[in-house]
Amino acid sequence: MIEGFRLLADHIPATAQKRLIEEVLGLTAEAPFFRPTMPGSGKPMSVQMTNLGPLGWVSDISGYRYERLHPETGRPWPSIPQALLELWRNVSGYDADPQACLVNFYSPTSRLGLHVDADETAKDAPVVSVSLGDRALFRLGGQKRSDSTSSFRLASGDVVVLGGQSRHAFHGIDRIYPGTSRLVPGGGRINLTLRRVTAPQERAGTAPDA
User: Fold this and answer.
1) Which range of residues forms the domain containing residue 70?
2) Which of 119, 125, 198, 207 is least surrounded, with the fewest CB atoms within 10 Å of its CB?
3) How far is CA 156 from CA 12, 39, 111, in A?
4) Does residue 206 belong to any structural domain of this protein?
């Protein structure tokens, strides 16, 4: 397994998962899910998404980027829940809080192809990912698309940390296993991805975004 990758199985207890999913879904009333599109082609992705935090990741025909406002409502994103900030502080080993929490909703037919999270300037900050709801088949490769990959299932309450070399590794979701959890109302999987976008002040030499 590539250096810096950690799978924290069953890290979030069932009662905490329930509280977290209720809080996150409550915030989607303020920042509703939208369907991003691929740069260039404008082809819709199979996942729906929204964001929490001072910055939100968006994708459309113009490209990938972070924005302060929801692309459909024009309003700022809701704050990241305290439970997720505490999780980041406990598992990331990083000395600044995340600025973005990408909320992805996977239906039974959703997929996410191999990709690298590369739109952040804080390249030394890990990515912390929380699985809630239906199980998913996660695939992890190396720092080149041609590198061999490993696949394993992620269950509700699992936490993945992509740090070190794995921070720049290709990864994706090959499939969802419908009906394997009752956590998400109506079914499906929600993935919460915590990211630090810009370098902290002491490293960047300028005021941080948050």
Assistant:
1) 5-198
2) 207
3) 8, 31, 17
4) no
* Whole-number Å distance between alpha carbons of 100 and 119: 12
Burial of 59 (C-beta count, 10 Å sphere; 0-12/13-18/19+): middle
pLDDT digits (tens, 9 = 90+) for 126-156: 999 999 999 999 999 999 999 999 999 999 9
Position 205 in a domain: no
Q: What is the pLDDT of residues 154-205, one digit of tens each?
A: 999 999 999 999 999 999 999 999 999 999 999 999 999 999 999 987 444 4
Tokens of 31: 């920042």
Report which of 180, 160, 181, 182 is spatially closest to residue 171, judged by C-alpha positions. Answer: 160
Task: Report if residue 159 sits inside a domain.
Answer: yes
Burial (Cβ within 10 Å: 0-12, 13-18, ≥19) of residue 28: middle
Question: Is residue 9 a part of any domain in this protein?
Answer: yes
DSSP 8-state symbol, 80:
P
For the chain, counts of helices (H) and of strands (E): 3, 12
